[in-house]
Amino acid sequence: QMMLRVLGCNPTAIDGEPGDQTSLALASFRRAYNADTWHNEGRARAYGDLPEGDGFDDATKQALLDAYHAELSFKLEPSRFHGPKHIGCGEFNPMEKHADSRRVTLAIYGDDAPEPAEFPCKAGDAGACQVDKGGQFTCKFYRERIHDEKVEHELTSFWDFDWMRTVTGKTHLSALTHLADANDARFVVRLVEGGRQPADEDGTGAAPAHGEVVAELAGLVRSGVAYAIWDHGPDYDPLDYEHWFRRPGECEADNLWLAAYRPPVFTVENQGVWGFSEGPGVGVDRLQSHREGAGLALGMLANGRLVLVRDAESSTTAHALRLAGIRVVGKHVNGADEPGATDV
After folding, report:
1. What would the pLDDT profile of 189-235 be if each residue is shown by its tens digit?
2. Cα dist. 148→31, 94, 106, 119, 248 in Å?
3. In angstroms, rounded to a whole number, what is the distance separating the alpha carbons of residues 59 and 102?
4. DSSP assignment, residue 131?
5. Where are the alpha helices (DSSP H) in the chain?
6. What are the helix and strand counts (H, E) for the chain?
7. CA–CA separation, 341 and 325 (whole Å)
8. Is the pLDDT of residue 336 over 50?
9. For a tag on the chain, would you pick the N or C end, based on fewer CB atoms within 10 A?
């Protein structure tokens, strides 16, 4: 479920239990995998097409791993890796002195990198390891060459905010995070005029009181995903941009388009840090076209801008663009500030 969420196929709750939402996410993943969604920048798929459906068979599991690796590989070239490229020293460097605990460490070197000949490591040969009684980490090379650096203030605590309508009609709110599992995440939905972000975006301390509060929700953090459910009732749909001109509980007014434009946004807070979402939308890089050739898409951004998006070759330039109220003809993958996209 966590891997599906990272890949943009949201299963909602990260609870390890099968269900309708997870089945929908698996079906979406299968279609996206067959469309090379995560293999469009030179990295070929490791497996062939998956059948239609929502099964979680061995082929789907292998494809999920393949897509996950492709999404998170950051397209690192083999030449970027130093020395023996990878080494296996978990036996000698246990985490928190638990014998059954393992870690993966990425060592990032600058000009102080050891020479390749200085690495004692040999794949499959533990006898080559420089092991002594020097402390918790019994590998001498590891102790001398691997150092922790605190970067907590350099990290973005929450990213990839997502709005999703569930099969029950409620709205699922979520974001990815590096925070540990917790039961006390707090989500606050606000109506913000123009969808503007707060000026203070450092993400530490209390979240800014930005916009009119319309819902406060208890949330969870599980396996790198923070999430909550908003039961807003049948008369207000945060994913319908026409509803962004009124408050939940209000009837649709005759002068709808003269009302204040206030799309919903949400903040998520946990462990002394917070993140602030944009309004509901769809990442252009995740839109799939079923027809090649020239086409147009009319979209509304979270800040109210309308954009006319033309045919383009690559979706990677549009990762930051999020659209709502999409009207589509043909293929559309480019961003509003890129060639091929025009403000309306």
Report:
1. 999 886 666 766 668 888 888 889 999 999 999 999 999 999 999 88
2. 41, 15, 11, 19, 48
3. 27
4. B
5. 2-6, 20-34, 58-72, 140-145
6. 4, 12
7. 17
8. no
9. C
| Residues near 66 by beta carbon (within 8 Å), at least 6 away in sequence | 33, 45, 46, 47
The token duo for 128 is 């080559």
The one-letter amino acid at 291: R
**Two structure tokens written together for 289:** 């076209």
In terms of C-beta distances under 8 Å and separation of at least 24 residues, what long-range contacts does 115-124 make, across chains too? 116/82, 116/83, 116/84, 118/83, 119/83, 119/84, 119/87, 121/83, 121/84, 121/87, 121/89, 122/84, 123/84, 123/86, 123/87, 123/88
Tell me the two tokens of residue 290: 């079923």
CA contacts within 13 A on the Cβ side of 299? 27
Nearest-CA neighbor of 243 among 300, 186, 298, 198? 300
325 has a pLDDT exceeding 70: no
In the chain, how long is the greatest CA-to-CA distance? 80
Written as six digits, the tokens of 318 are: 């549009």
Tell me, what amino acid is at 257? W
Contacts of 159 (CB under 8 A, 6+ apart): 175, 176, 177, 275
Report yes or no: 282 and 324 within 8 Å, Cβ to Cβ: yes
